[in-house]
Amino acid sequence: MIKNRIISLLLAALLALSAAPAALAEEAGVRETDFFTKQPHSSLRYEEMSYEHLELEPFLEETNAIRALLKEPSNEEAVRRRYGALSDRMDLAVTMLTLAMIRSYQDTGDQALAEEVTYATLLCTDMQDAYLLLLQDVLVSPCGGFLRDQFSDEEVTAFLEYESLSDTERDLVSREAELTSQYLSAYARISVDCQGRTWRQEDISAALLSGELNAEAYASLRTALAQARNQALGEIYLELAELRRELAQLAGYEDYAAYCYEAVHWRDYAPEDLHDFYGAVKSYIVPLYEDLYTLYRSEPAHGTAYADYGGSAALDLIEPYLGQLSSEMAEAFAYMREQGLYDTARSRTKGNMIFTTILPSYGAPFYFGNPGSTPGSGIYDFCTTVHEFGHYNHFYWHPCGWLTSDGPDTSEVHSQGLELLFSHFYPEIFGEGSDEVILYELVFLLSNIADGCLHDELEQFVYESGDVTLEQINRKYRQLCGEYGMADPDDPREELYGWVDVNHLFTQPFYYISYAVSAAGAFSFWLDAQDDYFAAVDEYLTFAALDTDVGFQAGFEMLGMDTPLSPAYLEHLAGTMRDVLEVDTRLEAIPPADIIGIEWFAEAAYALYAAGVLEKDGDGCLHPFDTATWDDTAGLLEGMDRTAPTSENGGAAITRLELARLLAEAFGVEEAGGTPFPDTGDGLVAALAELEVVSGYADGTFRPQQPITRGEMWTMAYRLLLAVAEPLVEDLAA
After folding, report:
1. How many other CB atoms are found less than 10 A from the CB of residue 272?
2. CA 114/CA 108 separation, integer angstroms
């Protein structure tokens, strides 16, 4: 188990997840809290932290020197002191690896940096191996009392069971590091050539915003880029998958998913435990997500989605409000900014990732952001900054070292829980646009639940299929996107390609489910905040302050809360959100999706819809161009409090003459003499023509036997209401 954990620290690339306190306390509005334990932090700024290329041999020499002291009990103090120094050296190696990775992600085109990351990864692998072999010898020696006191019996047993990495395992770790570096560098370089120009994703996004590309050209180039990325990066992924299956087998696991869940991410549940969770997400969360997304797309926007929150913009907006949540959070934020322990600048050379990590030797968390440039990325950039500070705050207040780390499920509760609670301040931050941002936040976190399950199912499919092809993955991805509401059910495409854009699948396999279970857990605090906001904040801070060895489900149990994996909990969450957000009422208020207000039938359609005479179909549309049926006519008349015809025609089309006569009879219109139409002498049609309810075609005909569309039917009915039943119109609209 310990060996697996060593490997996992390297394979995960040490990514999380993905001011003086006294001075802060004097500021107005700071809410004093005391949930966390003080930790040491370096006073160095990030630019003062220099990378050091370490060597393995001095470390091995020191392990042998300590081992030589173990036979004599009188050497315990010397062993304790030198072993502590060796631990610090181990932390330094991990710190150097982390620095190398951050700087490599800042410039993915720098091959020398990429090679140094591979070197530092293997160095840490060998150093940690030697360290743990020494730890075993110390534990069973006469000088090991100081060390045995630090661990539980279970931990001691686990350490004693550790076995060195084989040459094959080392080679796999090395190759995996190379492949993940290839992915990161290749992603930034992929382009397509069109009309004598080379296009990358940021180029087409900028061209769309500037008007250089229209929507159709943008969509075409975007699809071409997606296919190019899928082909190039998919081949890397297939090699990674095969390599990782072998790594799991060498670790004693038949299934790579089980290996990742237990040995890499230290989860307190197994892959097979999530089948009911997947089903509940599809039953309760996906429909809610789709409805809220409809609201987000349909309700008034205030431009908030397109604002630029890159660089320091989001940080500047967030800073004044953290103290209102917690003086401890304000302290962590001040440290991050004062020491320059973040990079949120937009850059074409950066890797396609956002993360928070820890530099153990300095006790210094670091936030790496890469603001997007696609339409709508503004809100995402802002909310992501809040998200990552949830990680940052936790790292700041907890002991850090190469063997101390949260499981990803718990870590993502820290980030997503803060996102939900911080939305309390959006009315003050965004003014009239706050509803838009809050709705975006909720939609995004619900999509995290669906998206996390989707990608976990996709990964399980890949690793269960030993000889899976790229085409099979693309087809499976299309299927799952439909099941989880991420693709239109009517989308004719048989393959989708966007899974290669999820860097976690390459750098941190089976991590993505953490976004799902943790978002479900984070909503626990949102639920409680509906009753008492600051009580929910304190509940969240209590969870964030738990020791790193507390499991995900165990953490909620300690707080007396339901497990987020329960289908009953998800059903309750979805129902409560629908009630609190008045989802059904707001959906009803949305104009029909196929009425944009400029059509010739729009006035009639809107008036009848607002009066409750017309109802949208399940797809949110009225379908004005469909042929009207006898059933449609009966429903229309009943909606206007008129007697509907008794007919066996049902779904059969109704003609223009039949509809005209039914409407005239329903409203007591008497026949008129003469007729303006050469193809009908019907007196009721003549009367409706006098009232300007009906008119002929350009050739002067009425075409009485021609079927009528729904839009024409509504227009005829609405004109009749205006002509002879204005009091009824007023009653219906009231």
Report:
1. 11
2. 8
